[in-house]
Each structure stands twice: as structure tokens, then as C-alpha cells.
Fold this protein.
Amino acid sequence: MEWMAWTMPTAAFFGTIAALLLVMTLLAIFRPEVPRRGILTIETTRGDRLFITLLGSAFICLGWLFFFGAPLWGALICCLIYAAAVFRWV
Amino acid sequence: MDKSQNNRAWFLVLPVLVLVAFSAVIPLMTVVNYSVQDTFGNNAFFWAGLEWFEEIITSERIHAALGRQVLFTAIILAIQVPLGIFVALHMPKKGFWASLCLILMAMPLLIPFNVVGTIWQIFGRVDIGLLGRVLTALGFDYNYTSDWLDAWATVIVMDVWHWTSLVALLCYAGLQSIPEAYYQAAKIDQASRWAVFRHIELPKMRGVLLIAVLLRFMDSFMIYTEPFVVTGGGPGNATTFLSIDLVKMAIGQFDLGPAAAFSIIYFLVILLISWVFYTVMTNLDRETK
């Protein structure tokens, strides 16, 4: 695995995403859901909302870097608020 | 009708997932690892944090390449989509000529990208190329190696030549699926040619058109080989699109960290736009059913 040049922060990042996917899989098995329509007027499942959250968060972080630079703590707070909004209303 | 989904079928996709992990996910993870580090070779890495992302996102060089890329993709879509529809509408519907047209339309799609680049590189040369010689003989001061406008025109015409067929063939398939009764009804109503196109043909082509736009967007946004072979990104940086700039950074300058950060941002932009297209497509399909 040395060739992959792992670092602790990137390992934690991918670990978190893997854990989220695992939780989503378990939820899908034990708590099957019905797709719903939110403010975007598109049908979404929990997985879709997770994807929208992750993709949007990436752009929030990039925008933060562009306007304010590192560190990304402020962006992280924005991402959490955004995630809550996506899971509640999208 | 509301019903829950059985997600266990996803286990059947596991073999594909393993293959995709080997060929795409693990390399992508490696790129993410590179993007937060610096290296001078010998597989020795040093932590750089978000430095490369900051550098790339505020780099004027990248902004310029992104601007060129967006402009190129917009021009390509603005030409190829209407032209593809126009060609499809005028292709014969059956018989010998329909088969011949289909073969001729498919031919540019079968030519490898670097061969297309080489063909146009030679075709446009003012010393030995047919196009270059003809344009020079007609009095045009054409030279794609020194004039940015000529370089852009050459790259755009080359892409239109290479890929309009794809749009045309997809639209043709959409048109072929329209039952004859629709046209007969339009004739009874004395509908004009434009009304037939606007209210029968265009709605029936909507699905394939969205696929065509999505494919052409992704391909033109990631274009590398053809312009690289024809112009090498020049003159100056006039045709240096995102992928050409990325390769220069990663392989020419061996700046693996910044190139990795660049790749991730590039990937995110394509992922976002493709997702928007995909969502629009699937929702339109649902609404029409």
C-alpha cells in the first residue's frame, strides 16, 4: 500500500465515506424507504441525498478555499448545515 | 404507486464493483493522496495540506484554461447539436441510400482519436496539406501554427467532422421510432413543416438528444488527443484546454501534487454537470410516462 502514498487525513476521509456507505446499505436493508420529492422537485432516495450532500460539500470547500483560503473549519460548518438541509428538504 | 425497493439485488453488482475498484476507485484514491502531498520522486512524499488546492483554484493559468474549455464546449454543442438534427432530418428513411448514409455517417466515429488529429494536422498544413494549400491559394492568410483564430477554427472544424455523426445517428434513431400515423395526423391537420418538427419530431427526439448532449459535453470537456496532435496546445496557449494543461503539469513539469489537485477539481466539475444532465434526463422520462 506504500505506493498509494496514504496519509492519516486522507485515510480518515475515505474511512468516513466508507462508513457512510455502509450505514446507507444497512439502512436500505433494514429500513427500506420510498423515494420522495423535495424542493428540487426530483425524486430522491437517501443515497441520492448523500450524493448531493457530498458533491455539494466538495464545492462548498472549494468556494471557501477560493474566497477565504485554508483552514476549512468554516467550510465544514457550512457543509454540515447544507447536509442537514439536503436531508430535510431535498 | 408507493412501494419499497429491495436493495439486495445490488449484491449481484459486486463483481463489477471489484473491477471498477481496481481500475478506477483505487487510482482515484491515490490521486487524492497525492493532492495533499509533495514529492521529488523516489516515492518520498511530504505533507502539503490544502496548499495545492489553493494554488490551483486561484491560478490564473487554470482559470484561462477553464475559460477556453468552456468556450470550446459551448461552440461544439452549439454547432453539433443543430447540425446533427438537421442531418438526421434529411437522411433517407429506408432503402439503399439510408444504408449508405448510415455507413458514411458512422465512418468518422470509427477512426482513432490520434489518427483524426494526424489527418487534420497534415490536412491543414500550408506546405503539403490540401486544406492549407487551397485556403492559401484562395488568398486566405491561413496558418494554424501561428494564428490563434486559425488554430481554433481548425480544432473546431475537426471536432465537428469527427463527432457530428454521433448526434445525427442518435437523432436518426429517435426519428425512426416515430410511427407513420403521427405524420398522417399532422397532414390531415395541414400542419406546417415547422409545426411537425416542433410538436412531433423534437419531443420524440428529446430522450436521445439529451443523451447526445451529455455524451458530447463529456467528450468535448475532456478532449485531449486531437487538439494535442494538431496544435500541441498552441500557438502560445491558445488551444491549451484543461486536459492538455493537466498533462503538461503532471508529466511535463512532474508537479504531481498540483496536478492531482487539478484532476480532482476537474473531475468534480464533470461529475456535477453530468449528474445534472442525468437527473434532468431521468425526470423528463418519468414525466413523459
Summary: The beta strands of chain A are 36-37, 43-44. Chain A has a mean pLDDT of 92. Residues 1-32 of chain A form one domain. The longest helix of chain A spans residues 8-30.
